[in-house]
Design brief:
312 residues; Rossmann fold; Dihydrodipicolinate Reductase, domain 2; nine-stranded mixed sheet; globular; binds NADP nicotinamide-adenine-dinucleotide phosphate
């Protein structure tokens, strides 16, 4: 939808994902424009700069919306402040450091008639909606998830990821859970888990998870941050009709070896189109289910201490 007037947006936390995805996606989305950045150590040429969200809220009252691209541990406070100042709020994933902190944000958004959008970027990957449609008419027999990446390549210098609330390997793993909770026809729940914690870190480097759905269908997931060489972001679903494989993080879909979808990632432009639509409709979109599954893994999971993780 193209609106008469562009929504004036600020990015908060100009780090890896903000630079790689948010800035170009905003530029490509009608109805919204990047008007400011709030980041302590980074700025963009030609865009108004503030060191913090507080300075932005005080110094740029014309800003209508903020995209919070900071680590999850600081996002609740920022979201609460932005909503209190009358801004629409887009949250990067995961939407927070705890599940319960979302309820007051939803309440504040409703009270203030502002949009709160908790994004799950992987749900916007091109093969995800086709997979959901395909599975709606099939019986699922089993699901296997392999989400294995090299933390040194994808999260260089991101100390927050290893701190409490940073989620460790669940930072990428929650993307798989955001896809599964969207495409599987039945709700599912965790029955056991094993989490591997480096002895010098507060967050897991690997996790093996066992879920089942309400029909007893087994769902197994293996997340690992220690993958070198080829990287794996795959979901295999055995159905009564054959095997569906969602690979490359949701960019590709194949059924019994035949490709159904093979597209380049275009997740973030779709996220911003949705944000513009939500604001126009006066609606919010907050689904905590993937974060709930991660919280369950921390609650139920057996912990194993493994060798220290040293980045350099
Ligand atoms: P990042 O590179 O560390 O960027 C986050 C930025 O937030 C930092 O550059 C920093 O900017 C600011 N920040 C850090 N700590 C802060 C604090 N304590 N208070 C206020 N601001 C702080 O991280 P990222 O990879 O962009 O990830 C950010 C979020 O996006 C995470 O939730 C992640 O899960 C999600 N995400 C990341 C990716 C990816 O591939 N990297 C993909 C999808 C989603 P200043 O120092 O300039 O303030």
């Amino acid at each position: 939808m193209i609106m008469d007037k562009e929504i004036s947006l600020a990015i908060v936390g100009l780090g890896k994902i903000a630079r790689d995805q948010h800035v170009p996606a905003i530029a490509a989305t009608p109805g919204i424009a990047l008007a400011a950045v709030a980041s302590r150590n980074a700025a963009l040429d030609g865009v108004a700069h503030f060191a913090t969200l507080e300075e932005l809220l005080a110094g740029a009252p014309e800003i209508e919306a903020v995209a919070l691209c900071t680590p999850p541990q600081v996002r609740r406070k920022q979201a609460a402040a932005a909503l209190a100042a009358g801004k629409h709020v887009l949250l990067e994933k995961p939407p927070g450091a705890t599940v319960a902190e979302l309820a007051p944000l939803i309440f504040a958004a409703n009270e203030g008639e502002r949009t709160l959008f908790a994004t799950w970027h992987s749900r916007f990957a091109p093969a995800v909606e086709p997979a959901r449609t395909f599975l709606a008419a099939r019986t699922v027999r089993s699901v296997t998830v392999e989400w294995k990446e090299d933390v040194r390549i994808w999260h260089p210098g991101q100390h927050w990821i290893w701190e409490p609330g940073g989620l460790g390997v669940f930072d990428p793993g929650i993307n798989a859970l955001s896809i599964l909770t969207h495409i599987l026809p039945r709700p599912f729940f965790l029955t056991s888990a094993e989490l591997a914690f480096p002895e010098n870190r507060a967050a897991p480097i690997a996790a093996d998870l066992v879920f089942e759905d309400t029909a007893g269908t087994p769902i197994n997931a293996a997340f690992d941050f220690r993958q070198t060489g080829p990287q794996t972001w795959d979901i295999r679903i055995d159905t009564d009709a054959g095997e569906l494989v969602l690979s490359s993080g949701g960019a590709r879909l194949a059924f019994d070896g035949r490709p159904l979808v093979e597209e380049k990632e275009a997740e973030y432009p779709a996220i911003y189109r949705r944000f513009v639509e939500l604001i126009a409709a006066g609606a919010s979109d907050v689904d905590a289910t993937p974060l709930q599954h991660v919280a369950d893994a921390f609650m139920l999971g057996q912990r194993r201490i493994v060798e220290p993780f040293v980045e350099a």
